[in-house]
Amino acid sequence: MSTLRVRFAAMLATAAVVPLLTYGAVSVYSLREGTRRTVTDGNLNVARQVGEQVRRYISTNLQILHALAADLDNAGLSAEQQDRIFKNYVLRFPEFRELTAFDPAGRPTATSRIGAPSVALPDGDASELYGVRMSPVYVDNDLLPTALVAAPIGRGGRQAGWLVGEFSIEELWRLTGRIRIGASGYAMVVSPRGELLAHGNPEERSKVARGESLASDPVVVALRSATPGTPEVRERPGANGEPMLVVGVLVPDLGWMVLVEQPTREAFATARRHERDLIAAISLALLLMLLTGLVWGRSLILPIRDLIRATEAIADGRLDERVRITSKSEIGRLGDAFNRMAGRLGELQDDVRKQERHAMFGRVAAGLVHDLSHPFKNIQNNCRLVLKMHDDPEYLDLFRRTTDREFAHIKRVFEDLRNIARPMPMERFPLDLNRLAADVAEAMRANASAAGLTVDVDLEPGPLYVEGDVFALSRVCRNLVMNAIEATTPGGRITVSTAAADGHARLSVTDTGCGIPAERIETMFEDFHTTKRQGLGLGLAIAKKIVDQSGGTIAATSRVGAGTTFVVSLARVPAPADGLRGEAGR
Questions:
Q1: Which of 2, 68, 175, 200 is most buried per CB count within 10 Å?
Q2: Distance (Å, rounded) from C-alpha 487 to C-alpha 483?
Q3: Are 513 and 387 in contact (CB under 8 A)?
Q4: How many domains, the chain?
């Protein structure tokens, strides 16, 4: 039954559970990857938009400076007029905190400051952008990110000087501060050398003032070595150790980098919630499926278990066992067929028992008639003669001996019937098996001679002691010899022999008679079984009971037409003490 349950569970798992789990795993994976791709793409779009705004902001202001430089070359204004124009520009465009014009020799000619100018031409680290030279971003005295920008004055290759401006990129703070990704996500702007230029998180802006570098950030490192236009997506620990989803893009033309970071718990919160809901739904479906399968499987397995139990009961002989299956399916039909079969087997068993009783009674009656008819016939004939010869002493003596012999025979028949029904009381003492065999052979010689047979004796040298009842074992030996006499045709030979082997003593009776078929040897020791045409068939059954009670075994080997050998094997015992020799030799 356990094997059936295991197979049913395997079938259920193969047919339903495995596909459901596979579907669930694929769905969870698809949901996770799809959400990750969606969140990543969304953050990348934000980063690109921020980068484009930064690019426009820088390019617009640099183009303004470039246009002003071009106007100075064409207008031919005096230094005072230039000063006034510079002051107006600084007031109009707060990104430029100072504007100063320099001649080709590097001397200041006009400035928006009151007093000496504080700016100078950008050094060799400056980069060329929109026709304007721009120095690396640095932190000024007000702890704000600042850069020096210089636009050439003059056209057509004519160098009339430089217009240098102090360009404050504080507006980047406000630009990045307006960017929010979820509740905890921010944008950052990083220079090509890795300096932090702006941070959308107000709590992190102090890093800009401190000039903190992100050159070792894995996203920054990857972007600096990546092909322009290729975004970078990474997961890395944040400042507080919390896992962060970081996407980065390069700002076109500037070479600056925009990073957008967001805690992964927040970025994938919706996906994880949907994932939990999906897992819960799949688990619930799986549980319902298993419960349904168990209920359905129980309704299938229980009738099978009842059928197995009832079949085992029938095999044990309890033919009144029945199954109660109320199902109308094939299992129910099988249960009905089983009940009909069991009922029919009971009827057949009753018929067989009746036939066996009739056959046994017939055999017993026939055996009794056969075994008792001769003694009663002899007694009847002698009783008739005694009426005529009642005064003849010799005949009276013959009549007495005849009746004693025939009544003794009748008594043996009755004793056989009684002994086959209950164990025979026996007294076990050490006895010499050689002496017992010799005595029986000598007593049976007259019967053998009357049948035209010869009785030989072949005994083991020396005494051969076993433990048993001398009268019971003598009866076994006499029955075996008598059977051999009845089964052997005149001129045959009967041999009574003993032997010792492996701690056992063996008594053998061999004849040269007709033999016993192999199919009858297995049943010849059963009650009322005989190979002869007449008789009760109790001799060998009683012999086996006696040998079993003596702790030994009896067996037969035979070949049809060649003869039969019966072997009685008993445990050999040491020679008895002197006080027991009389008992052993009885």
A1: 200
A2: 6
A3: no
A4: 2
Environment class of 221 (CB within 10 Å of its CB; exposed 0-12, middle 13-18, buried 19+): middle
Residue 575 is classified by DSSP as P
Question: Which two tokens mark 425?
Answer: 């009381």
Lookup result for tokens 């009785």: 455
Per residue in 127-143, pLDDT (tens digit) is 888 888 888 888 777 77
How many angstroms separate the CA atoms of 555 and 509, rounded?
11
Q: Do β-strands 454-458 and 493-501 pair in parallel, antiparallel, or remain unpaired?
A: parallel
| CATH label of the domain that carries residue 504 | 3.30.565.10
Question: CB of 232 within 8 A of CB of 223?
Answer: yes
Residues composing the chain: 586
* SS3 at position 257: strand
Please state, in angstroms and rounded to a whole number, the distance separating the CA atoms of residues 458 and 569: 16
Q: Examine the domain organization and report whether 403 and 486 are in the same domain.
A: no
* Residues 571 and 502 sit within 8 Å (Cβ to Cβ): no
Residue 487 domain-assigned (yes or no): yes
Residue indicated by tokens 């001398």: 470
Query: pTM of the prediction?
Result: 0.49
Q: How deeply is 367 buried, as exposed, middle or buried, from its count of CB atoms within 10 A (0-12, 13-18, 19+)?
A: buried
Q: Which stretch, 250-259, 277-286, 319-328, 401-410, has highest mean pLDDT?
A: 250-259
C-alpha 526/C-alpha 519 separation (Å) is: 13
Q: Dihedral angle at the C-alpha atoms of 86, 89, 94, 98, nearest 10 degrees?
A: -10
Which residues are CB-neighbours of 367 under 8 A, at least 6 positions away? 528, 534, 535, 536, 537
Q: What whole-number distance in Å separates Cα of residue 289 and Cα of residue 293?
A: 6
- Give the torsion sign (CA, 207, 212, 218, 222): positive
Identify the H or E element spanning 577: none
Task: Reply yes or no on whether the pLDDT at 350 is more than 50.
Answer: yes
**Are 469 and 411 within one domain?**
no
Residue 67: partners with Cβ closer than 8 Å, 6 or more residues away: none
Contacts with 121 (C-beta within 8 Å, 6 or more apart), sequence order:
102, 106, 148, 150, 162, 164
